[in-house]
Design goal:
Elements: H1 2-6, H2 10-13, H3 16-24, E1 43-53, E2 56-67, H4 73-79, E3 82-97, H5 101-104, E4 115-125, H6 132-139, H7 150-153, E5 158-165, E6 169-176, E7 179-187, E8 195-198, H8 201-216, H9 228-233, H10 238-248, H11 258-268, H12 275-283
Length: 286
């Protein structure tokens, strides 16, 4: 999810380091403020990631405590301090002013000198797992939460705009704030909860139809474990697979027993959102 957000606005991406760090941490400069310049003797601010969402720059930080006396001097000289995480957060910054794109060409960063911070919001985090960024943006009031049609939204932070309708399907455009994400196809009647996501509308419709055909096919070869390979064979879309992993905490690189997958979905409260997918997995594990 983070990668998608990082590339939402290519115009800003190359200036995030300069614009965000210099604006938030100590005025404006011709080069980025280094992390070392932000550190105290024992508390280190470690910058992890940057991005842009719905008019805000965001930046994650992990605060750690460095203990140089936990072990022997020889150990610390070789491996450094014992480092303990004492806090995680994400800061959203609203930057206003003129962005001089032409002056930034060539990487001199001069354009960002005319940007100013009009607002900052910091949200404390328990971890950088799952839907942490979308949840934090909702908590900060940057994105609005809507839990209708969750099988199509995949997360309450996304918005839907009707695009096309036929006798058997509805097609929506899915947005994150003001940024278009993809097209979503949902069925009607018995299959209204079945969805498929794709960057383009035609492949989204084709993908949904193939997914429906495979759902109705009882002759597919059985598998012993749930894997991404099986999910794709059954017609699941990439975005749905990734979001299921974020929702449940399961790793897409691993293979799981069916009961582990079902249990994780129930524990996360997303079993209804993925009811067709879970049912199809159950019918194809043997």
């Amino acid at each position: 999810m983070t990668t998608a957000l990082k590339t939402e606005n290519n115009k800003f991406q190359s200036t995030i380091n300069n614009a965000l760090l210099t604006a938030l941490f100590g005025g404006y400069a011709s080069k980025p403020v280094t992390i070392n310049e932000l550190a105290s003797n024992t508390l280190t601010q470690v910058q992890h990631d940057y991005g842009y969402v719905s008019g805000y720059f965001w930046s994650t930080r992990t605060q750690t405590h460095d203990d140089w006396h936990a072990y022997s001097k020889q150990y610390h000289a070789r491996y450094g301090p014992k480092r303990t995480v004492v806090g995680r957060s994400v800061t959203f910054a609203k930057l206003t002013g003129k962005f001089d794109e032409a002056r930034h060409v060539g990487g001199n960063g001069l354009g960002i000198r005319q940007l100013e911070v009009s607002e900052t919001i910091t949200i404390e985090l328990d971890s950088f797992r799952g839907n942490w960024l979308l949840d934090a943006a909702i908590k900060a009031g940057i994105l609005q939460s809507n839990e209708t049609l969750m099988n199509a939204r995949l997360h309450a932070a996304y918005t839907l705009e009707s695009y096309k309708e036929t006798d058997t399907i509805n097609v929506y455009k899915r947005y994150l704030g003001d940024i278009f994400v993809d097209y979503v196809v949902t069925g009607k009647g018995k299959f209204k909860a079945m969805t498929y996501h794709h960057k383009h509308s035609v492949p989204a419709v084709e993908g949904w139809r193939k997914k429906l055909e495979r759902y109705k096919n009882d002759n597919l070869e059985k598998s012993k474990l749930v894997t991404v390979k099986l999910a794709k064979k059954l017609g699941f879309c990439n975005e749905g697979i990734k979001q299921f992993a974020r929702d449940t905490g399961l790793n897409t690189q691993f293979a799981y027993e069916l009961q582990t997958v079902l249990g994780a979905a129930i524990a996360a409260g997303v079993d209804k959102k993925y009811q067709y997918e879970l049912d199809q997995l159950a019918r194809n594990i043997g």
